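User: Hello! I'm new to structural biology and keep hearing that structure can be predicted from sequence alone. Could you demonstrate with G protein-coupled receptor 68? Please show me the input and the output so I can see what each looks like.

Assistant: Of course. The first part below is the input, the amino acid sequence of G protein-coupled receptor 68. The second part is the output, the predicted structure written as tokens.
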Amino acid sequence: MGNITTSNAATNCTIDHTIHQTLAPVVYVLVLAVGFPANCLSLYYGYLQIKAKNELGVYLCNLTVADLLYICSLPFWLQYVLQHDNWLHGDLSCKICGILLYENIYISVGFLCCISIDRYLAVAHPFRFHQFRTVKAAAGVSVGIWAKELLAGVIFLMHTEVMEDKDQHLVCFEHYPIQPWQRKINYYRFSVGFLFPICLLFFSYWGILRAVRRSHGTQKTRKDQIQRLVLSTMVIFLACFLPYHVLLLVRSLWEDSCEFAKEIFNTYHFSLLLTSFNCVADPVLYCFVSENTHRDLARLRASCLGFLTCSGLRGAKEAFPLSSPEALGKNEARREEPELLTKLHPPCPLSSSPGPGGTSQEG
């Protein structure tokens, strides 16, 4: 098994890990197949925002990088569960993958909170707090979030995370019942990593909804679209993170025996699997619901079509009706968005094209 430091005394708590061999592989494969390409597109969208000097792009890119790092650890976890919870890659790799798994939750929560506060300031206070809504300020906040979570993850490096069970399998991040040092960090996770950010997020989105309702210059259909975006964000946030943190607190408070660990094991690990869907939900919420993003992605597709056409694939033109003048005209008509929706999803810069007089101008 390599140079693996394991506990000589196998744990006396024997738990049925069937959920790891049945449900976990399905979730991991789904998140890999959908989350990786979706987050790559999200990274492109965030790059366009940064190019436009928009601070939202900084948060989007950091959120996407955190999701991609977690997604890159999924093949290791997939192999682990398919091997019947037998870790084959050493203690250090177990710690790194575990940190990517658990800290991604709080890095994601942090940047979702930053995005909500940024959108609240843009909609409710568009002429104030400019010093907090700059690319430089967003970069500073992002460094602080990464530093805080990475420092919190150091505690896992101080403990052995690979242990040998009664079947001589090397289990990774499996401690039953919960250990005393884990209780302390779990209280920190729940209060600082989840409860405080979600209070800020609720306050921010309540302010956004109130500003939308007070706006008289926005069409009703646009107001409905903004409210659906805000409410769907809250629902997905709660669905992905609330069950896990409730059960995390329950374990920390009352798990002091193997019997209790057995009773809560499946429910707890199901809630942990739910957090993985955040990697799929993030790009959908903050990129693909915006008409601006639809237009940018349509133009990206049109550029790819142009490349294929120049390469001799003439038949591809009929397969993409968006390239027709009528479709492009309808697409251009979507530019007229109300002020509030534009603030929620600032338009991205289009690729440079020769303007009048041969100079390059942004679309």
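User: So the tokens describe the shape?

Assistant: Right, they're a compact way of writing down the 3D structure. Reading them back into a model, for example: Strands lie at 162-164, 170-172, 353-354, 360-361.
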